[in-house]
Amino acid sequence: MFYPSDPVTLRAEVERFLASRHEPEPGPHLALVSPHAGYPYSGAVAGAAWARVRGQAPDLTVFLGPSHRVPFQGFALPESQIWETPLGQLALDRDALRVMEDAPCVVWEEPHIDEHSIEVQLPFYQVALPKAGTVLPIVCGRCTPAEIAGMAEALAGLYRMRDGRVLFVCSTDLSHDFRYDEACVMDARTASALADCDADRLAALFSSRQAEACGMVGLQVVVRLARHLGRSGAEVTGLTNSGDVIGNRQSRIVGYLSAVIR
User: Fold this and answer.
1) All domains of the chain, ordered by start, with CATH?
2) What pLDDT does 22 receive?
3) Would you state the pLDDT for residue 21?
4) Burial 229-259 (b: 16+ CB within 10 A, else e)
C-alpha cells in the first residue's frame, strides 16, 4: 500500500530518494527519525535522514513505530523471527527480544501484523545499510510518562550491552488534518524541541495539543534515550508537509519530518 511491490522498482525508488539528499556522514549515528507516509509523499524526507547513515553497519537496528490499528497499553514485541519485504528477508534479534521482555513490553504479534509505520522504513534500511545485522521492531501503544522513561532506560541498557553498535529508528508523521498555516506552526514546534533533545518540552507540546505526532511515544523515547547517553541535540534533515509535496495547501495537511542524532 505504501511502496512498490516489485523489487527492482522499489530499489530504484529508494536509491533515488537517497541519492538526491545529503551525502553520508562518518558514523556511527545513534538515532534517526523518519516519516512513514506513502513514498510519493514522504520518501524524499525519509531519504534525507537515511542518506546520512548510508553504509554504516550497526549490529542491531531498533525500530519504534506507532500502532495505527490495534489499541493497547505499553509496547509490543513481535513473536515472529523473520520479516520480509520485496527486497528480502530480515532476521529479528532473539537475544535483544529476550532482554527487552524485562522492559515495559508485551510479546504480542497482533499489533505488528497490519502495521505500516515500521514496514515503510524497512526498504530504506535494506538499501542504505546492506551490511547491518539484525533488527528489533517495537510497536508503541498508549504509554504513561513512566513507561516512556522506562523504555528509554531499557534501550540505553541495550545500547551499552551491544557496545554502542545499535541504531535507533523512530517512525513518525507529524500533524494530521490541520489547515496549512496551523500545521506549519505545530510542526515547527516539534522540530525545535527535537533539535534540542528536549523530551519534557515534547511531552508538554503533545499533552497540550500545541503539536501532534502519531509517533509521539517513540519520539519521546528516542529523545530521552539520547539524553541518557549524553547527546544534547538532533539535526533536523527534512521538514515539510503534504500541502507542499502535492502543491495543494487548501486541503487538510499531514506533516513530515526527518532528523539524525549523532
Assistant:
1) 7-261 (3.40.830.10)
2) 65
3) 62
4) bebeebbbbbbbbbbbbeeeeeeebbbbbbb
